[in-house]
Structure formats: structure tokens, C-alpha cells
Fold:
Amino acid sequence: MPVEISLDTICLPSSDIVAREIEGEIIIVPVVSGIGDMEDELFSLNETGKTIWDKLDGKKKLGDVVIELKKEFNDPGGEIEKDVIGLVSELLKRKILVEIRC
Amino acid sequence: MLKDDKERLLSETVFTEVLQAFLQKEIPFRFKAAGQSMSPFIKDGDQLTVSSLSNKSPRFGDVVVCIHPESKKLIIHRLIGKKSSSYMIKGDNTYGKYDLIPGKNILGKVSKVERNGRRVFFGAGFERILIAFLNRSDFHLRILLPTWQRLRPYIKRSES
Structure:
């Protein structure tokens, strides 16, 4: 099912995952039935993904995340917003992030 | 940006970090054992569940998961004693020398062993004390296992 999000969406990492920064990347392992399993999935976020991930604190709207990133990085082609929306949609779909509803 | 990256767990560094992350959150972690140093209780390919020590000290005879202070490798051996502030650990299937591991290097302990989908006994109850004593003296390797191996064909024959 497609996940609908907007710049007003607020997200934070799910309590059903364990995430750790390893060798400059974020490694994410799901917790299934209260246990981690080497046979289950494992995801990694590259440096760009990590930059976005670090800002998803359950308080900021995605719009604020985009504004912060635009201050930190050049964005002549307007890629930042697309990257944030794309990554967050994917993480919500995989239940790595949860949406906070106000 | 997001990659389904299961192969990364094959890297020992990543695996150790992931295991530590789980145990720090007191969430058990399940994985496949590699090696024969804990045979016959834990065999190559067994599924192990490792749990956090929950800020308690490991007990004599526990099968602990730790990082070796020199090689930095992850090892799973039995705790057979204490020397000043370090713990003596040794595989149930290894002769002679034990390793000394500082308490901070012990990540957790094995809480469950499964083989072919079934839970197996690995000496984690009160019997762990006896196993640890035998392990420390190598008595089980010098006397018990060779005797068992010699007797086994006769026992099997009489069972059939």
C-alpha cells in the first residue's frame, strides 16, 4: 500500500528496530516478536540517508527537515525535498519509521 | 540511500556491533554458531539466542559471549573462574589454556540453543557448575569423552 506523506508529516524511528551507526552508515535491524534474528532483514543507510535519518526525531516536520538540509547543503536542482520524501516514504513502508499524528 | 543489505552481517565488525546494539537494549539476538570449540553442547550451525546480562555479573558455568581483548574476535565459551577483575573462559571442547576476559568485554550469555528446529540442552542450569569444573581440569576431555566414545557403539548395539 502506498504511503502518503507531506511536508507536515512528523516521523520517528520505530521501537521495533535497532539502529546503530557503523563505519559511517546507519545499520537497521528489525525486532520481530521481541527478538533480533540474523536470518531476518538488515538495512543500511548511506551518508545521505544518515544525514536525513539523524534529523527524524519525532518533533520536526519533514518541511523543517528540508529547510535545515537546504541551509547545510547546496540544492540548486531541488533534490533535497525529493530525497527526504522518497526516503521517508520507503522507511514508513518498511515500518522502520512511524508517523506521529498530532 | 536505503539498501537491503543482509550480507553486511557477514562482516564480523558489523555483526559484533549489531549484537552489542541489541544487548545494550536488552533485546535477545539469534544467530548461527560457527566452530566446534563448545561441542558437544553447542555444535557448528546451531541456532543460538544470546541475552543481555541485565547489569548482573555472569555466573560460574555460564556460556558467555565476549570480545577477546587482544584479537578483538567474538567468542562464545564457558566461564570457568575469576582472576582478579577478569573472567576465565574456555571452550568445552578445548584443551589446556583458558582466556582472561575483562568484565566489560562480556556482552551477554547464551540463553537458548536450537538444533534442527528443536531446543537442545547445553548445560545452563545447575549442571553448569559441574561442567565448568570438568572443563577447568580438562577431565571431561581426557577421561569422559574418550570413555563415552569407546562405549557408545556397545550402548547403541544393546539399545537396538
Observations:
- The mean pLDDT of chain B is 88.
- The first helix of chain B runs from residue 12 to 24.
- Strands of chain B lie at 2-4, 29-32, 47-51, 63-67, 74-83, 86-90, 99-102, 106-115, 118-119.
- Residues 71 and 99 of chain B are 11 Å apart (CA to CA).
